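Running this now, will post back.
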Amino acid sequence: MSPNALRSRVVELVQEVQRLPYVWPASPDAASARTAGSGTCASKHALLAEGLDAIGIQSHPLFVVGRLIPDRFAEDEDLRDGLSLLEVHECLTVTTPWAGPLRVDVTWDPALVRWGLPGTLDWDGASDMSLALDAIGPGWAVSRDGLRDAKESLRSRLYAPGQRDVRDRVLRDIAARFALVR
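Update: finished.
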């Protein structure tokens, strides 16, 4: 495949996976996103990684931490108990032969990005994509082997007892609201 054709194919794969609606909860694996035609940050990026691997483009999981509640919901009384919580977000570093490593984040589907959530539509394949959340602190590149355990270990550093339950309820509530946007 020519370099231009390869870049075009990478952009197509990114757009295909980004178009899948974001849902939560869902299993974090590629098979889940493929079967359901929707997914979480974890499952959508796992599916994208599979597609990139199939065309010879390397990718690596990337964890970033940021506020759990998007700015769009900062004033929502029903979500107030999640305002101080952080989220471990999953995206990818994609190693391209034309631009080197690029940050790729396909979490929010186009309807949600157009609604005001952070994201990149019409990605050019040569620049970093916006993250689905405002990152605070460092990011962590992790191996696919042991990915789930590494993410849970990082979460255990962030959440005090009982906060994980609040995080899960807030994510369910936010995801339910997203369904109304589409």
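The chain has a mean pLDDT of 96. More later if anyone needs it.
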